Amino acid sequence: MAQFFKPQKKSTQPQRIEFTIDTLDHHCVGIGRHQGKAIFVEGALPGETVKARITEEKKHYGHAALQQVVTPAANRIAPFCGHYRECGGCSAQHMSVDDQQAAKAAGLVSLFERLGNIKAPALEPVLSGEDRAYRRVCRLAIKFDKNGRCTRVGFRRRNTNDLVEIEGCPVLAAPLSALIAPLRACLNRLKSQRELGHAELIQSEQGIMLLLRHTGRPNETDRALLVEFAAEQGIDLYLQANDEQIEPLHQLFEPSYSLDGLSLAFAPGDFIQVNGPINQNMVAQALAWLGATRDDKVLDLFCGIGNFTLPLARQAREVVGVEGEQAMVARAEENARRNGIDNARFYKADLSGDIVGMSWAREGFDLVLLDPARPGALEVMGHVAKLSPKRVVYVSCNPVTLARDSQVLVKGGYRLARLGMLDMFPHTGHLESMALFVRE
Description:
There is one protein chain. The chain is an alpha/beta fold. The protein has 8 helices and 21 strands. α1 (97-114) runs parallel beside α8 (399-411), α2 packs antiparallel against α3 (220-233) and α7 runs parallel beside α8.
């Protein structure tokens, strides 16, 4: 007679483990080994024995949430923000800034050698600045609490979509941090609280801008309340609808920032670097590494509103900037006009697609600079190599894609001559870096 047995069910309880952390990755995340598998634990330091709960398990590695530091490392420090344990904004306040930079620098070199199979040169000195009140741009999460029947404002909880309500943030520019509590009070007066998305706070040299995502159609009473709030706070306020259209509700100034003696105008929704002083130093270093002269024609890919293009134009014979957003192209052209620059041209192009047939792509260039978003620039790297410029400077906010993309240049006859890190985002796992490639 056949016998049937019910298979034992796998336990759905998350596994809790105790092990020792050996090293850090480039995100300042602790890495240890448990049962032969690498386990990544945010908030843990090398040399520490920790208890952690497995949150994700793959064949060769896993991720775990830190529950207890059994044996703390001697270099562990107390976080300076009361929301640090739960807020997902910062992830490395338990480390000194020097230790953060050392971990990121080591991770950068390791990525080039492991992913790019490229021997990295000695790193340049880290470009760093203030580690508090450095952010001039932030996005605030907004959530209507059905139980409390109120609107909460803050940042996303670490590794979740939940919201951590905050009163202020010590890494935000002080005027932005001071605006959070009054903004919350204003939003709680609106009838359309359930239709709010998120808010962006941006500090320009002229003042603060608030870009408020609204998924519905606020009535006249709500509009009046928002305008009253903006007037009281002395800020500009814009509404952004679901179709991405932006409507000014209260506008006092045209925002801009200074860079290398230039004035760059921008609009809400445009990308600007969050750390103004580091951006200044970054542009200066990129220009020095590229070494453009009046004999050189330069290509600037992913040029945005002209952050690198316009300073380059004052050194080079001609600069061509290419950007995927038409609004940014228009802003770059206007920035060239407002600064009296007539040797810069700008084009809109999808740099993740085929660019070979485009007119600007068929021109010759002596130097190339590129500053892509996190996905990198793999699709365009082959074309850059074919252009055969003397030097290429690659600015990256993702060292993984930088190391990957660099292989194309090295295989195309270029040498990684200089490599450096910029501490654009202290106390976070984000890493900005810059690489110089020289044609052999």
